[in-house]
Amino acid sequence: MVFAFEPLPANFRILEENVSMNNIQNVTIRREAVSASSGNISFEFPHAEPSLLAGPTVEGDDLGTFQVPSVSLDDFVRQIGHSVQFIKMDVEGAETDVLRGAVQTLKTFHPPMIIELHNEVSQKGTHPAIPLLEGLGYQIEWLNEVGYRSHVFAHWIGRTSENQ
After folding, report:
1. Parallel, antiparallel, or unpaired for β 39-44 and 65-71?
2. Which CATH class is domain 83-164?
């Protein structure tokens, strides 16, 4: 089972269309943001960064500033009652917040992760998500670095940065 979270209405619509057109049965799409805590988050239509849109927009996609529900991964995993086998994360700069809301899930299931990190600092610098993951026993492998984005593979090795 795959759970996909997409807070932007235009991207949600495109994701929903693709899942339906391809008759994909094992994907559940949720129009929510993933964050450090559950509640609501304010979003703004990405006029300044059109690359955040997954495809062409239609009338009604530009909502200006709008509210979407947010959920922490810990709350979501408790709600669904399933184990977590893998996490793929591309959250446009909210990586550390998402990970803070997933600490219990990561401690319990130790899922491997592919994460896109947004930062002005190169991989030789420190993104705040890296020490958080290392403190939970994850080893980080830098996959690439393109501009202000890097992709990392994080896998659990069972040793925390405190006891290495």
Report:
1. antiparallel
2. alpha beta
- Cα(41)–Cα(145) distance, integer angstroms: 29
Residues of the chain falling short of pLDDT 70 = 45-64, 120-125, 159-164
What's the angle, vertex CA 152, arms to CA 150 and CA 154, rounded to 5? Answer: 155
Q: List where CATH 3.40.50.150 sits in the chain.
A: 83-164
Give the whole-angstrom CA distance, residue 62 versus residue 157.
44
Structure pTM?
Answer: 0.84
pLDDT computed for residue 122 by the predictor: 58
Contact 152, 115 (CB under 8 A): yes
Which amino acid, one-letter code, is at 105? T
**DSSP character string of 7-39:** -SHHHHHHHHHHHHHTT--SEEEE--EE-SSSE
Q: What is the pLDDT of residue 54?
A: 52
Q: Hey, is 146 helix, strand or coil?
A: strand
3-state secondary structure of 103: helix
Task: State how far the Cα of 9 lies from the Cα of 68, in Å rounded to an integer.
Answer: 9
